[in-house]
Amino acid sequence: MTDRAARNQERSLAAFLAKKAEFDALLAELAQASADHFGADPETVLWGEAAWLSDATAKLKDIADQHFRRGEYAA
Fold this sequence. Notes:
Elements: H1 3-35, H2 47-68
């Protein structure tokens, strides 16, 4: 590997690890919010909360499908 390629790889790794740390922090926040039922009060939950959770779940499913190459991302 050339010096230029090695420096490029080091910068790529640093950027990847920074984004992974951000990703992990977001996952931890979401896990905590989920444990608290996203602040929903069982006595007052309405369709808006269910719709929001459905939308959020669809976004996370798309991310998982991309990573695991499922659904429309299947090879």
